[in-house]
Design a protein that fits this description.
Oligomer: single chain
Structural class: alpha+beta
Helix content: 40-55%
Number of helices: 17
Shape: flat
Strand order of the largest sheet: 2-3-1-5-4
Number of domains: 4
Largest sheet: 5 strands, antiparallel
Distance between the termini: 65 Å
Number of strands: 5
Strand content: 5-15%
Order of helices and strands: HEHEEHEEHHHHHHHHHHHHHH
Radius of gyration: 30 Å
C-alpha cells in the first residue's frame, strides 16, 4: 500500500472502491459518493486483484462525509446502465492497517539515537529513560484495579471489525497480512500481582529533549500532508475567438499546466481531471474521446495541435528578435511581453535554457526606446552577466516608481 503513504492519504476520510470499469459508467459511482460530501481526490490503486477489477481510493475533503457514510459500509452498488458492473465500497480504515505507525517508530528510534550522540549518553540508557516515561503513562491510564480483568481476556481471539456484510467483499492483497498481525495480541507474561518498577525514575529523564523530537516529527508530517493535499487551480480556457474576459489565452493556460505536469504528489488520473475541469467548449470537445486513463501528455498533444502556435522554434525566435516596444507601453510591460514570447520559443526548441536570460536582456536593450533608463540601470554593462527575469523586472518597476514620483 505504498500509494497511501506516497500520496499522504487521509485514511479516516477515505473509502476504497473495487470493480472500477474505467469507463463513463464510473461517474454513477462518483455521483453517489458526492451525495455525502465533497471529494478531495480520486487515487488509482495499481495492485488490485484481477477478480475484483480495478480499485480506487476516494478521499473526502471533510471527515463529516465518512460519519454519514460509515453506517452503510461495506456497500454493494450495482450500475444502473451496465448490469455486469458492480462496485464494492469499503471504509479504507477497515481494510488497511497503516504502516505509518511502523515508520514513525523507526523514525522515532533513529532520532533517539541522534539525541544519544548529541548528549554523549548511551543509546540504551536513553531508550530505558523513554520506556520509563511510557511505563508511567500506561500505569496512569490503566490502574492496578483493572489488571486482573485484563488478564482474564483471551489474548488469541482477534477483534472483529465491520458488519457481517463485509464477508462478501474481497480483502486487499497487501493490507490483509498486516491487519491479521495487528488484530492478534501477544500472550501476557507470567501473571504477577506486583507492579514492576521501572529501571530509572522519571526525574532522571530530560523531557524537553524528548518532547522536541516528537513535536518536530509531528510538524514535519503535517507540513508534508498539507503540501500533498494542496491543489493547483487552472484558469478556464475554451479556445473561442474573440476570447472572453474571464478566460486566459492558450499560452498562459499552457504555462499553468506545466506546473501540474511537474507535480509528483498527484496521480495521472487526478491531473487529467484537473485539466478537463479547466476546459470549456469547444476546447473540451476535441479531447472527449480520450479515456480517464490517458496520460496528461496525450491531452496536451491534441490541444497543442489545435490551439498552439504552428511556427517552429526558428521562426518564433526570428519573430522575437523583431519585437519592439509599442508606443505608450511601459518598459516593464514590454519586458513581460518579451518573456512570454521567449518561453514559447523555448518550448518549441528555438533557444536553450542556459541562454534565456541573455536573450531577454539583449532584446530588451535593442527594442526599448527609453535610452535614459537603459543608461541609468547600466544594462549594457550587464550583458556579460545578465540578471534573471525577476531581477530585471524589479529593477524596471523600481525605476518606473521613482520616475512617477518626480
Amino acid at each position: 500500500m505504498d500509494v497511501i503513504q506516497m500520496s499522504s492519504v487521509k485514511i479516516p476520510n477515505s473509502v476504497i472502491v473495487s470493480g472500477i470499469a474505467g469507463t463513463e459508467t464510473d461517474e454513477e459511482l462518483y455521483d453517489v459518493l458526492k451525495r455525502y460530501g465533497s471529494i478531495q481526490r480520486i487515487i488509482p490503486v495499481d495492485f488490485a486483484e484481477p477478480a475484483s477489477g480495478k480499485q480506487v481510493i476516494v478521499e473526502y475533503v471533510y471527515g463529516a462525509a465518512m460519519q454519514s457514510l460509515s453506517p452503510l459500509l461495506p456497500y454493494r452498488l450495482d450500475s444502473k446502465t451496465q448490469t455486469d458492473i458492480t462496485y464494492y465500497i469499503r471504509a479504507l480504515a477497515s481494510v488497511y492497517t497503516p504502516v505509518a505507525s511502523k515508520t514513525a517508530t523507526q523514525t522515532y528510534l533513529s532520532e533517539l539515537k541522534d539525541i544519544a550522540k548529541q548528549t554523549g549518553k548511551d543509546f540504551a540508557a536513553v531508550l530505558r529513560e523513554e520506556l520509563s516515561v511510557i511505563s508511567d503513562t500506561v500505569d496512569l491510564d490503566h490502574p492496578e484495579t483493572q489488571h486482573e480483568d485484563m488478564e482474564q481476556n483471551s489474548p488469541d481471539i482477534p477483534e472483529q471489525h465491520g458488519p457481517e456484510a463485509a464477508e462478501q467483499l474481497s480483502p486487499l492483497p497487501s493490507a490483509a497480512p498486516e491487519q491479521h498481525v495487528q488484530l492478534h495480541r501477544s500472550p501476557p507474561p507470567t501473571p504477577s500481582k506486583e507492579k514492576t518498577q521501572p529501571a530509572l525514575k522519571l526525574s532522571d529523564v530530560n523531557p524537553p529533549d524528548i518532547q522536541k523530537v516528537i513535536v518536530e516529527h509531528i510538524v514535519r508530517n503535517e507540513d508534508s500532508a498539507l503540501q500533498a493535499h494542496s491543489s493547483l487551480r487552472l484558469r478556464p480556457f475554451s479556445g473561442r475567438f474573440p476570447r472572453p474576459n474571464n478566460e486566459v489565452d492558450y499560452e498562459t493556460w499552457r504555462s499553468n499546466v506545466e506546473f501540474l505536469l511537474k507535480s509528483t504528489t498527484q496521480s495521472e488520473l487526478y491531473k487529467s481531471r484537473k485539466l478537463l475541469e479547466s476546459l470549456l467548449s469547444p476546447a473540451v470537445d476535441i479531447v472527449k474521446h480520450l479515456t480517464p486513463e490517458s496520460p496528461l501528455k496525450v491531452y496536451l498533444e491534441i490541444l497543442d495541435s489545435a490551439f498552439g502556435t504552428v511556427e517552429d522554434g526558428d521562426d518564433l525566435f526570428a519573430k522575437y528578435l523583431n519585437t519592439m516596444q509599442d508606443n505608450g507601453e511601459k518598459p516593464s510591460a514590454y519586458l513581460q511581453r518579451l518573456q512570454v514570447m521567449l518561453n514559447t520559443t523555448f518550448r518549441r526548441g528555438g533557444v536553450t535554457a542556459s541562454d534565456l536570460d541573455r536573450h531577454l536582456l539583449r532584446q530588451f536593450v535593442r527594442g526599448c526606446w527609453d535610452n535614459i533608463l537603459i543608461a541609468e540601470l547600466q544594462l549594457e554593462q550587464k550583458k556579460q552577466k545578465p540578471p534573471t527575469f525577476a531581477e530585471l523586472l524589479l529593477l524596471l518597476r523600481t525605476a518606473e516608481g521613482l520616475k512617477s514620483k518626480t
